[in-house]
Design goal:
The protein has 292 residues and is of the alpha+beta class. Helix content is 17%, strand content 39%.
Amino acid sequence: MQDSNPPLTTTKGGWRRWLMFAGIGVASCCVLSLLIGAFAPKTTSTSALNATQIVETTAISTVVSATAVPATAIPTTVLATEVPTAIPATAIPTVVPATEIPTEIPATAIPTLAPEPVVLQGKGDSIEDLNNPFGAALYQISGNKCSGYFGVTSLDSDGQQVDLVVNTTEVYNGVRPLDFGEKKTTRLEIKATCAWKITILPLTAMHVLTVPGQLSGTGDDVVMVRGAKADIAQVTGNKSSRYFGVFSYGQSGYDVLVNSTDVYDGKVIIPEGTLALEIKSVGDWNIAISAK
């Protein structure tokens, strides 16, 4: 049997044909590779894509988180307790307390001087203008050693009588109330034969009867009532059977307790709220007051 494929020869013409076929084959492979590379779809691994997306997403989230500031981190409204808009008064007071720098000097620190007693004196009849610095006050009156007539009348600014203060023909030395009522005395009319003296004193000059207790005196007087609440007074006086009167001044006004020309020894009720007693007497007297 004869072989159909002639054997390769190494002749010059045979080598040329073999090299040509080999070159064509190599060129064909290259072209085929280029074509395959050009038309094949580009692929990226799923793991690489996912990693890139995760990185980008995290970065974007970080930026977004940074741009949106949480309310708890930086509050939009400053609390008054954290940064006060007004300085507390306790920290820096705007006004100095009166207890530190007093606006007025207390009277106890520099006491004011009490007015001096007013003294009027003369002989015979006289009209005396009265400047009373005390308001309700006391007359201390003495005179008529010659045992003539001695009278003192108080007048208001209209010239009207306020009180018949003294009316006697005997030597006089006594204390009388001044302006215990609504009318105010501005002038005194004195009727006298001999020398006289009138002194205006504050209420602090009164004798004091402390309840429960008693007080004795002679002639006209004004007595302050202090202590417990007064109840009943045992009153004695007027042994010479002249005029004898006891009067009360207080919250209830003016009350007559005793009004007699006989020797007196009796009990009377002291009105509630009594502050002072006026005694009109020629001789000695005694008043004892019990407490409720």
